[in-house]
Design brief:
- One of its GO terms (biological process) is Mo-molybdopterin cofactor biosynthetic process.
- One of its GO terms (cellular component) is cytoplasm.
- This is Sulfur carrier protein FdhD.
- It contains seven helices and 16 strands.
- With about 270 residues, it is α/β, with parallel strands linked by helices.
- The strands form four sheets. A six-stranded mixed sheet has the order 11-10-12-13-14-15, sandwiched between helices.
- It has three domains: about 30 residues, no CATH class; about 90 residues, Roll (Ubiquitin-like (UB roll)); about 130 residues, Cytidine Deaminase, domain 2, CATH 3.40.140.
Length: about 270
């Protein structure tokens, strides 16, 4: 079967066999690209992330911040991406180092959950209780989700990625896409750190399931409202309650469910 890489490297075209209406046919299908990126911090191997090959710098910055390696973008002295080999080299500023007992080499899969063995190690110091006073209307919730979905050409072409955006109640500021939901969120976090965008008054819009990991990521970023097209888990709802985050799920058509802190959503 023929395989052709797309110009943007985020997808490729492949000949496949499709069954439909009691018949087989050969068609061209668009397949999302999966790419391993190994991160070195101060010369030491830190993590290998399986991701969509776009916005590498943002993802690395957001990931290091979410893991507590850095608090601010200025704590990175240099960041180099060797895309041809799949390496990211980070040098921390001012002699900053990592504690060996706290961090170790790891592999981060494109799925959530148990592939991230270190999940609870740094959450205590990096997860923040939301202090957001932002409010938005029901129609704004629906419109933000619609806008994010309309922007995602990669999802329309492949159906194989997660979409995430940060915005105000009125509009989306930035959107990112990745095969890993945590990668998409890290890209947003990195973008905000690089561009010094305050997030306390912002809204996180997300296409995937609201898992506890997603809620934890949202809390690390610092937003107070998370909008999702999909369902939440029970632990995600409990975390949202504890962390003062408004969790909204099943935004489809003209309806949605508010699972925690509904005071931020008005008719």
């Amino acid at each position: 079967m023929a395989i052709e890489q797309s110009a943007d490297k985020m997808s490729l075209t492949r000949s496949i066999v499709r069954y439909d209406r009691e018949a087989f046919s050969e068609i061209e299908d668009s397949i999302v690209t999966e790419f391993p990126l190994t991160i070195y911090v101060n010369g030491e191997e830190f993590a290998t992330m399986v991701c969509t090959p776009t916005h590498f710098e943002e993802m690395v910055i957001g990931f290091l911040a979410s893991e507590g390696v850095i608090l601010f973008y200025k704590e990175i002295a240099s960041l180099e991406i060797d895309e041809s080999k799949g390496f990211a080299y980070v040098q921390l500023a001012n002699g900053k180092t990592m504690q060996p007992a706290q961090y170790s080499k790891r592999v981060i899969g494109s799925c959530c959950g148990k592939s991230r063995q270190f999940y609870f190690q740094s959450d205590v110091k990096t997860t923040k209780t939301a202090v957001s006073a932002v409010t938005l209307s029901a129609s704004q919730c629906i419109q933000l989700m619609k806008n994010m979905q309309e922007e995602s050409t990669l999802f329309k072409g492949t159906g194989g990625v997660h979409n995430a955006s940060i915005g105000t109640p009125e509009e989306l500021i930035v959107s990112r896409t990745d095969i890993g939901r945590h990668n998409a969120l890290d890209k947003l976090y990195g973008y905000c750190l690089q561009n010094q965008i305050p997030v306390r008054d912002k809204v996180l819009v997300f296409s995937g399931r609201l898992s506890s990991e997603v809620l934890t990521k949202a809390a690390k970023i610092g937003v107070g409202v998370v909008l999702s097209k999909s369902a939440p888990t029970n632990l995600a709802i409990e975390l949202a309650e504890d962390l003062n985050i408004t969790a909204v799920g099943f935004i489809r058509g003209q309806s949605f469910n508010v699972y925690s802190h509904p005071e931020r959503i008005y008719p």
